[in-house]
Design goal:
alpha/beta, Rossmann fold, six-stranded mixed beta sheet, four-stranded antiparallel beta sheet, 6 helices, globular, ATP-binding, ABC_transporter-like_CS, ATP binding, nucleotide-binding
Length: 224
């Protein structure tokens, strides 16, 4: 099966720290996988996720993401890689001075798509996350759950190969959380997007198969 992420003896950490956060991790993630990565606070979940989009450098080992080697990657190749990736953050990271429509357009504008395509796809994906009726609203006019749905729309509007989610339901109530999980699953099922979610705990309510990785004692271990 085609691998979209492949790590060999991957070691990650931050300058000034004596001990690496992740040490000698080896694992692979396939193109159509839905991955849930769990671990205690401070275990390195977000650090590992950052490494997948080049947000943190590699101390040792190898990491290939979307068929790109991230070790000593240059800025041009990093930009090309990120155009294949969508990211959903716990705190949404929306631009509050922009309408939600313009927020969702951002990945398409970065990819130099025409204004017509940007507008059409933004409208389509806001309707997809059930916010088409609020297209002219600004983020702070929405609830937290609605803002996260905008963030999901922005992350999938360009139908990425890889969708990375950092605690996407950490601030949401149960109803909003379930909606977000449904949208993430649909991204995998509809477009074959590989979805990787880091969270404190894998929800017991998920009604679909996923692979479960746990970060424990700086290792990345698959749980069966």
């Amino acid at each position: 099966m085609e691998q979209i992420i492949n790590a060999k003896n991957l070691t990650l950490g931050y300058e000034g720290e004596k001990n690496p956060v992740i040490k000698n991790a080896s694992f692979s993630i396939n193109k159509n996988d839905f991955i849930v990565i769990t671990g205690k606070s401070g275990s390195g979940k977000s650090t590992l996720l950052k490494s997948f989009y080049g947000g943190i450098g590699i101390l040792n080992g190898e990491l290939d993401v979307c068929f790109t080697n991230l070790k000593n990657i240059n800025n041009r190749n990093l930009k090309e890689l990120r155009q294949k990736i969508g990211i959903v953050f716990q705190d949404y990271k929306l631009v509050n001075d922009w309408t939600i429509e313009k927020n969702v357009m951002l990945p398409l504008e970065i990819d130099s798509q025409s204004k017509t395509i940007c507008k059409k796809r933004s409208e389509h994906f806001l309707k997809y996350v059930k916010l088409g009726h609020k297209i002219g609203k600004y983020p702070l006019e929405l609830s937290g759950g609605e803002q996260q749905r905008v963030a999901v729309a922005r992350a999938i509007v360009h139908e990425p190969n890889l969708l990375l989610c950092d605690e996407p339901t950490g601030n949401l109530d149960e109803v909003s959380s379930n909606m977000v999980w449904d949208f993430l699953r649909a991204a995998r099922d509809s477009w074959g997007t590989c979805v990787v979610v880091v969270t404190h705990r894998a929800p017991s309510t998920l009604k679909f198969n996923f692979r479960h990785f746990e970060i424990k004692e700086r290792k990345v271990v698959e749980r069966f």
